[in-house]
């Protein structure tokens, strides 16, 4: 297949936590993503005060930027360390609450209320817990999901989208035989069949 050996690769949650512990987080960028700046108008589509979802959010700096623009941001991330670093690096006070529907999960919410970050696996979320979103910023998310979980991930994302929502997806194109991922190579044909 055109995705080579990547189809069977699995990165466990423990491996992700270990990357955060070791500071092995080359995917994190201090600057806002140029493609989000370029396509922000497309994402917003003339609307203001949106609910914007960041799947597999890490400590993405764009969450602070969009909240400052008046949107409300929800993220999900397995690494609590990542989320704590996010609030610390932006000097944002926050509170921590358990999530009654998800054993062991918590939600870290900025005191101003416009950023809520769930510390759990994305597969634990559902629209009855987080509601639906007007917009999704998917960078380092679909491409970080294990290839065997892609359909499950996309099916979940579709249930989290309001009917008028917009979804910006960033992927990377390269020869999947030369790098084991993540980020994984997700061919455009697969994106089309996943999202329909
Ligand atoms: N989107 C972020 C981070 C990309 S790296 C950015 O642009 O910087 C992928 C992140 O997903 C890592 O921080 C990892 O800890 C997290 N992650 C991996 N599997 C996850 C899962 N099942 N649920 C939630 N977060 C997950």
Automatic annotation (TrEMBL):
It comes from the Eukaryota. GO terms for biological process: methylation. Keywords: Cytoplasm, Methyltransferase, S-adenosyl-L-methionine, Transferase. SUPFAM superfamilies: S-adenosyl-L-methionine-dependent methyltransferases. It is found in: Cytoplasm. S-adenosyl-L-methionine binds at residues 16-27, 56, 77, 121-122, 139. The keyword Methyltransferase applies. One of its GO terms (cellular component) is cytoplasm. GO terms for molecular function: thiopurine S-methyltransferase activity. It is an enzyme of class 2 (transferase). Its EC number is 2.1.1.67. InterPro entries: SAM-dependent_MTases_sf, Thiopurine_S-MeTrfase, TPMT. It catalyses: S-adenosyl-L-methionine + a thiopurine = S-adenosyl-L-homocysteine + a thiopurine S-methylether. It holds the Pfam family TPMT. Belongs to the class I-like SAM-binding methyltransferase superfamily. TPMT family. This is thiopurine S-methyltransferase.
């Amino acid at each position: 297949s055109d995705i080579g050996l990547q189809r069977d690769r699995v990165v466990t949650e423990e491996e992700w936590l270990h990357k955060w512990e070791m500071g092995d987080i080359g995917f994190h960028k201090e600057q806002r993503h140029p493609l989000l700046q370029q396509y922000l108008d497309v994402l917003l589509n003339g609307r203001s005060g949106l609910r914007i979802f960041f799947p597999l959010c890490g400590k993405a700096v764009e969450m602070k930027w969009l909240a400052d623009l008046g949107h409300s941001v929800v993220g999900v991330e397995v690494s609590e360390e990542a989320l704590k670093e996010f609030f610390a690096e932006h000097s944002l006070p926050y509170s921590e609450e358990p999530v009654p529907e998800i054993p062991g999960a918590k939600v870290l919410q900025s005191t101003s209320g416009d950023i809520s970050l769930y510390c759990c696996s994305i597969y634990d979320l559902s629209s009855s817990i987080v509601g639906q979103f007007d917009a999704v910023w998917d960078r380092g998310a679909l491409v970080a999901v294990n290839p065997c979980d892609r359909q499950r991930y996309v099916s979940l994302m579709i249930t989290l989208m309001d009917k008028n929502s917009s979804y910006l997806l960033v992927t990377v194109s390269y020869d999947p035989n030369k790098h084991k991922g993540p980020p994984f190579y997700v061919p455009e044909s697969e994106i089309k069949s996943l999202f329909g």
